[in-house]
């Protein structure tokens, strides 16, 4: 009897020790995740924990932006108030659901996949029927045996990933219950029906991920608003100044120096939009121009709103001719577009075309040579912009090799 009691006590101590270790590890995970705004790091930490305690061999998290299941329901002709559809319905709609999700992916985190498998999933956004069921019902879905429960296509996918069973999980917004993220965990072995226990143990981690997604979005939004103009999305002046200083410093590191161009852009006769049609039309015109610029400039270029309808753009490594080519493409993208709102067109207004002018100042940075400040460079570009206005607008002006002012008309 005494020996039996000792064995039981030893077992209880071992269990308590394991629980203490698990609680300590979980507390460390939560503390670490709360200190970062990097969702990829949070996802990787979560799955490292899952691998150890839930016997996960691979998993992925897809964070979604503006996922609205009602829009998908409208597309496929099913509404939540009806009886839940059959598994064959889920299978038939999984491909369409994948296509719907492609434009909503904010972040994807893969743990344990080969590069090939990850590429396949990224390109196809493969959504098996069980995940679609999970996202519609908003309840966890466990596939205990892929061979018995899934379609032939899904079985082939599972075999390719060496998966015997898996669990799908959704993270919901606390206010409107929309899906914030979908989680997928694959297991090496078939599992017994332990959905309730798995769900209970995973709930704190879903809460953690929900908190981090919402907090990170708030952080990103606050950072965005502190750096960018709300209407156009272009950078504010202090950010442009910092980028200018960084570009000039980088250009001066080479033995032969480097080149950087700054352009001042101004929308031609912009005041007429506000005067004739109202400020809502004027704002729409600014947005339309901003989209055209953002879609055309290079990744390395930086654009800021300088005030009203004036913009400043930095082009590291580009001379005046290169900048002129970029601005010509901006012009080409908007030259045939009627920028009026539908409400203005319905009042019989004629189409309005948007045009702009630009002054381009190119700085050649040479080691040891004095460098102009940002304000001096902008003043030089603004003087060239003034030459455009004096000569009919819808053009750009820059200095040629002989320092003579050259003009280039966009039409």
Structural overview:
- The strands form 2 sheets. The protein has a 6-stranded mixed beta sheet, with helices on both faces. It has a 5-stranded antiparallel beta sheet with strand order 2-1-5-4-3, with helices on both faces.
- 52% of the residues lie in helices and 19% in strands.
- It is of the alpha+beta class.
- The mean pLDDT is 80.
- The chain has 2 domains: 36-225, GAF domain (Beta-Lactamase, 2-Layer Sandwich); 237-409, Reverse transcriptase/Diguanylate cyclase domain (Alpha-Beta Plaits), CATH 3.30.70.
- The longest helix is centred in the N-terminal third of the chain and has 33 residues, at 2-34.
**H/E element string?**
HHEHHEHHEHHEEHHEHHEEHHEHEE
CATH third-tier fold name of the largest domain: Beta-Lactamase
Helix content: 40-55%
Q: Mind telling me which CATH architecture of the largest domain this is?
A: 2-Layer Sandwich
Q: What's the tally of helices?
A: 15
CATH class of the largest domain: Alpha Beta
Largest sheet: 6 strands, mixed
How many separate domains?
2
- The share of residues in extended strands comes to 15-25%
Taking strands numbered 1, 2, ... along the chain, how are they ordered across the largest sheet?
Answer: 7-8-6-9-10-11
Task: Please mark out the parts with pLDDT under 50 across 5 or more consecutive residues, or reply none.
Answer: none
Principal-axis shape: elongated
Structural class: alpha+beta
Give the CATH H-level superfamily of the largest domain: GAF domain
Distance between the termini: 100 Å
- How many β strands by DSSP? 11
Rg over alpha carbons = 29 Å
Mean pLDDT: 80
């Amino acid at each position: 009897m005494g020996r039996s009691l000792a064995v039981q006590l030893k077992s209880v101590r071992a269990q308590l020790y394991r629980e203490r270790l698990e609680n300590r590890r979980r507390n460390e995970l939560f503390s670490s995740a709360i200190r970062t705004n990097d969702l990829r790091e949070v996802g990787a930490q979560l799955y490292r924990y899952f691998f150890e305690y839930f016997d996960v061999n691979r998993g992925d998290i897809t964070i979604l932006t503006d996922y609205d299941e009602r829009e998908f329901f409208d597309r496929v002709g099913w509404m939540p108030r009806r009886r839940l559809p059959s598994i064959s319905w889920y299978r038939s709609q999984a491909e369409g659901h994948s296509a719907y999700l492609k434009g909503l992916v904010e972040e994807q985190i893969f743990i344990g996949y080969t590069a090939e498998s990850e590429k396949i999933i990224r390109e196809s956004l493969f959504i098996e029927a069980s995940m679609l069921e999970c996202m519609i019902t908003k309840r966890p879905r466990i596939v205990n045996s892929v061979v018995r429960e899934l379609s032939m296509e899904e079985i082939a996918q599972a075999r390719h990933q060496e998966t015997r069973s898996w669990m799908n999980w959704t993270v919901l917004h606390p206010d409107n219950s929309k899906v914030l993220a979908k989680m997928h965990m694959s297991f090496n072995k078939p599992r017994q029906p332990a959905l309730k226990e798995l769900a209970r143990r995973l709930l704190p981690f879903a809460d953690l991920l929900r908190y981090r997604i919402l907090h990170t979005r708030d952080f990103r939004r606050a950072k965005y608003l502190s750096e960018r103009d709300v209407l156009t999305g272009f950078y504010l002046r202090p950010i442009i100044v910092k980028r200018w200083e960084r570009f000039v410093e980088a250009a001066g590191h080479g033995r032969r120096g480097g080149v950087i161009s700054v352009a001042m852009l101004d929308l031609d006769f912009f005041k007429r939009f506000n005067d004739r049609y109202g400020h809502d039309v004027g704002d729409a015109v600014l947005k339309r121009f901003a989209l055209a610029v953002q879609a055309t400039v290079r990744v390395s270029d930086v654009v800021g709103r300088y005030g009203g309808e004036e913009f400043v753009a930095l082009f590291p490594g580009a001379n005046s001719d290169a900048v002129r080519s970029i601005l010509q493409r901006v012009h080409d993208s908007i030259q045939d577009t009627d920028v009026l709102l539908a409400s203005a067109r319905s009042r019989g207004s004629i189409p309005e075309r948007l045009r702009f002018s630009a002054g381009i100042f190119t700085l050649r940075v040479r080691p040891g040579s004095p460098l102009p400040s940002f304000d001096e460079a902008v003043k030089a570009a603004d003087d060239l912009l003034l030459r455009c206005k004096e000569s009919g607008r819808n053009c750009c002006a820059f200095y040629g090799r002989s320092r003579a002012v050259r003009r280039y008309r966009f039409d």
